[in-house]
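PROTEIN DATA CARD
Card holder: Glycosyltransferase family 59 protein
Chain length: 628
Origin: Hypoxylon rubiginosum
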Amino acid sequence: MSAFSTSADPSFILQLLRYGLISVVLHIYTKNKTKPLLITFASLSIVGVLGRQWLSLVNKHVPEPYLDEVFHIPQTQVYCEGKWGQWDDKITTPPGLYVLTILANKSTGLSCSAYYLRLFNVEIISYLALAAIISRSKIGQPKTNELQYSPYAVWTGINVALFPALFFFSGLYYTDVISTFVVLLAYTNHLGRARRNAPSLVNDIYTIFLGLLALCMRQTNIFWAVVYMGGLEAVLGIKAIRPQEVSAPVFTTLSQQIKFYSWRYSLGDIHDPPLHQTSPVDLLLCVLSVGIAAICNFVTILQRVWPYLVVLGSFVGFVVWNGGVVLGDKSNHVATLHLAQMLYIWPLFAFFSAPLFIPQVLDWSFSIFQILTGSTSSVVPNEKTPMTKDSSKSKQSAALQTFNWLGSCHTIHSLVVLAGALGAATLIVRYNTIIHPFTLADNRHYMFYVFRYTILRAWWIRYALVPAYVACAWLCWTALRGSSFLPSDAVLLAVCLALAGKKQPAATSKDISQAKQILSTVSPPTSTVLILLLSATLSLVTAPLVEPRYFILPWVFWRLLVPARPALPTSAPESDSAGSPWLVSLLETVWFLLVNAVTMYIFITRPFYWKAPDGTLLDDGRVQRFMW
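Structure generated from the sequence above:
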């Protein structure tokens, strides 16, 4: 089949019709005008056409099953023939992909040939983009019931589908695309539940169904379908308690302050500020407050998260029945404590998401410029803050004053965190660098060359990379915070008043605060980011093998939480539509297309053979190809 013959394929016409039907259904669901309808259809079609072209190239040059397809395609074809009792013991994942593919192909009259099995992933990658668009729209509009697609949400959804480590496998019959899609379906459902104080029983059952379906795609989805979404649901259950607000009294002793806040935490009044307002102490207080609230409101939380516990119980039952997590080849997939995975994840994120960090570089450049030009001071005319001594401080005990002083030393806390991160990374490199035999034996994967030319090159390179790990982690963290730097107060006010068409001779502190709120971006709650970090850690540190595919879901959820960075303050910060963040998203799209084009070109045009030292062909003379 030619690389550009999708229009001649009847299944492509059917695919476009399905896109149209889905667009109409969502158009009715969103209760909006024609814009969501066109956006939905265009997004599905763009990703679908790109996927079709990639599949056509693969089918033309690699018509036979390649690598893991050698297991997946024959097993699906066996099921397609009705032989449901046959199973290849070398397959480690559940048969969810095979069953869904057969159901889809049988219902549309397609065969179970290698091409049409691969075609299933091409169609799913389109729906994955739509699921990501809906997810980002709900994240960016947490307080509205009417779903609206912002430009940033649409760009984000398309870019998630084009993520190179994911999109590459849309042209092959691998489990990654359908696994990610099902988990995103569960996530969109969770975001819908987040808007309701008491989800219905029907939705609880639907939540269980999606969780079990995710486990049928891949066992490691337990960390996302239960730990991540269940953890977020638990925090929502705490916040739904909504205790009556009270003013903090004047404390004179440390014990009074601890008792007061412990009491408030126990009532559900947790410390969970947006990430851009946090310091290291806030992270600790968030964990502490959520822990106290969870213990003191266990029954309330249980009523909210019980569907996730049902999924967890089912998974535990499967592990007991199966004698382990993986199916089939258990000897090469033994769970191992591999903490170095949490070092490798950040350079991978930084590489793929490099365009997202451009605003941060501009922020830092502007900050340095202000420092050099001496324009960092705040200008607030006609209002002075009296430098009067706080009379209540003289009544505080020395222990309380010391405790509060230590808690306010944010610069020192940041330096301690930095030193701790560097120290922990060094210890992990020294004692927990694990090189799986598959990494060294298989030169078809890019990770073989990454390891060969970095940590395996010389012993000192391992330690030289420690600052790079920490720097990349910091970049990813600050990307979630949004715009962490703002211009001087005078510049802020002038910009905001000019955009609003107002003229005001003097500025008050209230005006400055409002201006900062307009320019600030909506970053996720601190608890959400901490739960994401926990879930990513649990999903990665148990895997001894380092593969970019293992980082797909951590990247997807991180990317969905990255807020829009408005170029101009044109609307309230609750909406993703604030400003014009399309340029960075466009650069991200171009970057993904470039990476995809290069890796696809190498896969198609640079085949090679494994040869013994005497020149004899190995692996039965099969063609080998480079891939993720």
